[in-house]
Each structure stands twice: as structure tokens, then as C-alpha cells.
Write a structure and sequence with these properties.
Number of strands: 14
Oligomer: single chain
CATH class of the largest domain: Alpha Beta
Helix content: 40-55%
Order of helices and strands: HEEHHHHEEEHEEHHHEEEHHEHEEHE
Length: about 450
Amino acid sequence: MRKIIMSPTPENVPQDNTDLSQMLKHLEQHHALILQAAGEGIFGLDLDGRHTFANPAAAKMLGYEPQELIGQPSHSLWHHTKADGTPYPQEQCPNYATYKDGQVHRGDNEVFWRKDGTSFPVEYSSTPIRHEGALVGAVVVFQDITYRRQCEKSLTQFRRHTDMILQAAGEGIFGLDLEGNHTFVNPAANSLLGYEPGELFGKPSHITWHHTKSDGSPYPAEECPIYRAYKDGLVHQGEEEVFWKKDGTSFPARYSSTPIWDDLENLAGAVVTFQDITEKKRMSAQLLKEAKLAEVTRVLGDIGHDIKNMLMPVLSGADLLKDELDEQFPTLIREKAKGAETSYANSLDLIRMIVTNARRIQDRVREIADAVKGVISPPHFTPCRIRDVVDGVLDTLRTYAAEKGITLLTDGLDALPVIDADERRLFNAFYNLINNAIPEVPRGGSVTVGGSPGPRAD
């Protein structure tokens, strides 16, 4: 390309007309390339609103070839009707206004119409063209914002749906910024804390409703799990704390504080969900009370049954002892010493049985006292031999069984392994089982407690 030589004169008139023509041609080509490559639609309009140029993007978006648009009136071609279907008078059109008043006009809530009769939402600007100070037309730059509108609609629907969820949620829900100030509060949260809608917005959360512990001592913000969520970015939960209402009263709350992150993955705050668990705690306490009462009732019933059974051999033994003594002592002088010794031994056995059962009754009475106090003794497991436990039961019941004409036997108990069990409760179980069986066996019969070892578990 040849150089363009400019005159040093004030007029700066090129001295080579050929160079001037080439320069103009180059500029036109350069401008044409820009228009061809532009993603936005670009029109040139004269003072009558007719197209003087249209780039490929503009023609394509409207469904035309670029040549079809040249010389055609713009408004009646693609801007004749509003989005609601009503006519769009040209005098109201911002594009028309530009080449009439020489001002820049913009729009982002209108539609352009395609050749096939369909429309699309646009964002556009209309800029005046001047030549030597005179208004000669306008340039319209526009873009199809269908996708943007769809995204905005989806976002609006999502926000509306989210707002409906927040409004309808039974749990209290807060949004907090990094300073712990409320950014949103749903109706349930306002109601639970006794505030009017909007009253909490912007207020600090901790000193408003989480400032004091349930015991009345101050609650430093640094110790608060909710505070930590928007500081360390972790989820925190709490169950044994209280929230404070506007009127100064409090209620037990279960809550969860979850961090919020922005698009750049920076910590932006936290969402707090909570519920008043006053009723739940009341019901739990009531259920616990009822469970304890039921357990006490059951234990009292078992103990009463056991005491009744334990007293039967004691009473029987006492009667036999009395009979024995009545029989032996009047004739003690006339009988041989050996007979006296036998009677003495039998009396000792009976007395031992009475003492043993009396002690067991004492243990059961002690359990009654504990049950009334709400103290239920847990099982006390120790190694024990079933044969020893059963022998103890049979020794206690043998006199009672003899009175009924029943023999008490064991079979195979020596072969049973040592087990871990609560020996006292195991004794009571065998005692009740055998004691209940004795009255059911005909006189002259027997009650046998037998057992055999099962297969070993690998």
C-alpha cells in the first residue's frame, strides 16, 4: 500500500487522490468486516426509517436476507406490534424518536417480529447518525434476549416457589449474614419469637434471641454453634438450648445452622432452621413418667407374688416346727438322747429355712422401696452354676413339698456349664416355677428339674 501524503497546510487535503480512494475503500472493507462479524443485530436507518444497511446477524434474527431489508421501512416490518398483541404506533417507537429528536433511546421490554410472523424479546439501543452536524438517520443495535428471559422466568418461578416454601414451613427459618444480622425471616420464625413481619430484618441475631443460657447465665456469641456456622463454614446443631422471645420468656429449641456459600465459593452467611420442642419435651417427660410407673407397677406385682410364695414354706415350716416341739418336749425325758438330737437337727433345718426365706423377703421388700423411689436395680451378672441355684430353691421348698406329699428331684444339672446370670433373679425364677408346680402335682408325685448342655456355638 502506498503512503498517504498529507499537506502541511491547515486544510490537510491529501495530495494524492488515488491514495484517498484506496484509504476510503479500505475503511469501508474494514467496517464491513466488523458488521459481518458482530454478534448483535445492527441496522442503519435513514430519516424515513428505511434500512440503509443490515448486518447478517440482524437479518438472520429476523428471518431475512440482508438485501431484502435494504430500502424497506423498519417499523412496519419488524416493530409494528407490542408484546401483548396491540398495535405499536410509530410515533411511540423509541427508534423513530432517535431519528427525529437526535437522542439515544433504549428498550429492553419489547419484541421484534420475524418474517414468519413470530416474535422474540429484544434489548436494543437506537443512536443518531450525524453528518457535518446534521441528523441523517440512526443506528439500531439489538440482541435476542429470549434465553435471558427464560432464565429470568425460571429464576422468578424458583424464587416464588422458595418463598412459598419459606412461608408455609412449620419450622422457623432465618437467613444470617457474616455479621449475624437477619437477611430473611419466615412467618413461623416471627411467630415463634413473637415478632411482627419485617421487625427482625437487619437486627443482630445472637443478642436478640440467643443471648442467655437456660440456666440464666450469659451466652457468649463465640460459644454459639449458630455463630460458628458463618465463621468456620461447618454445619452445627443444638438441642438442649433455649431461644428467647420478644416478651422475655424462653422456650427449648432444636436447631441446625448451615453455612451459605456465594457463586465464588466464599462464605456468605448461614441459614438457621429451628423448632419449639416444648411439647415434645413435655410428652417425653410424660412417657418417661408413665414408663417408670409401669415398671414400678410390674415390679410391685412380681414382688407381691414372690413374697406370697416365699411366705408359704415359712408358714408351713413354722407350723411343723411347732408340732415338732409340741410333740418332743413333753416326752423329752422319756425318749432316748438320739431322738432328741434328731429333733434338734430338724428344728435347726427349719429355723435355717425360715431365716433364709426371711432374708429373701427382706431383699424383695427393699426392691419395693427402690421401685417406689424410681430406682430400678439393673441386673447384676456373675458366674454361677445352675445346680447350686436349683439346690438352694429345693432346700427352701423341700419342707413345703413334703407337707404336700411331693418329692423334689434334679436330673443332669451337674453337666450344665457355668453361666453369667443375675443369681438372685435366677433363683426367683426357679422358685416361682417350682413353687407353682407343687400344688398341681398329685400327692405321692414328684417335681424334677432337669437339664442337658446344648451344642456349643462356634
